[in-house]
User: Fold these one by one.
Assistant:
Number 1:
Amino acid sequence: MKPSTYSETDLDSEAARRALDYYLNPPAPRTEPDQLLWTARDGVSAEQAGEHAMSLLRCAATTAFESGSNAQGSSRELLFALMHMVNMARALLEHTQAVQRQQK
């Protein structure tokens, strides 16, 4: 079969790609910068949230330490600096909780 010689029936490949992208890959919905990515479930107390945050920080510090133990040079220093910052955040959170307990 001979290829078509009519330019009106030829498909513009760029237009076809745009059309397929429009229907098959819709644009991501826009999110407001102030929207939270996630929230704690209803009924979670400040104390429970603090305990969970301390647990997450403890895991993050351990992960940084273990990763840093197997690294060398500036990567090792960076991971240990991260571990130090996580431990400082955890210490501040623990201090805040201790002060709140004393005030009760």
Number 2:
Amino acid sequence: MMHLENLLGDQPIWWAVFISIAANIGVSIAGVLPSAAITAANIIVFGFWPGFLLSIIGESIGAVLSFLLYRKGVQAIHHKKMFEHRSLQWLAKTKGRQAFWLIIALRIFPFMPSGLVTLASAMSQIQWWVFALASTLGKLPALLMEALLVHGIMQTGFGLQILLVMVSCFVLFIVLRKRKIV
């Protein structure tokens, strides 16, 4: 396992923390990039629990900043029929307790793009702090599963890690080819 001292040398640790949080904010604002690589890096560099905590902090800050930016943009557009998924349409129309629980459920669901949940939430009438709480609570189990997966993979042999990377690249290629991107 890589140690932070080896990576940073004499540099203070807060630089690594800042870079991690900034990367999570960038991924959240982009809305389509997966944050798994940042979570993996956090666990490798900081250790399991500190890396997990840093990922939660970074993703939570990123989600709130994205929410605020998206809300500003949505107010300028006024177009609420952007989503085909019924849960996202429902979220855009809901408020209060219903929106709170729906955001938690959508954050836990592993195949729901985080950026779409944030955008639908920005289109709803939910207050930013309620979104922040629901989003963070929903991200906890999803990030824990992601962190455990990364930790498990890091405990395997190098050959298996290479095989997993190759299989992942192959699956990505197939998906992109089916969508006629490649």
Number 3:
Amino acid sequence: MVYYDVQNLGDLIKAFIEQHKGPDYLYEMKAINAWPEVVGPFIASHTIDLSIKNKTLFVRVDSDALRNELNYSKSLLVRDLNAKAGKEVVDEIVLN
């Protein structure tokens, strides 16, 4: 008689991602995906790229004025992105 180890597909996918991308990868993606909701459609439309490495969110925007404006809101953005992610995955923001 053959016995199979039955597991939930969602749990297997999550385990695979955590093993290959790191344990916080899914939370980081939640934070990145929440960017448009947190900053609003205008800033989101001027955002070129987002990435997280070592709890630092790297943000590229297409406007120097917008970059300066975002510098004043970094702590609020960190708080709101972490809240949306459900875990503290961003400690600081670097604007390029």
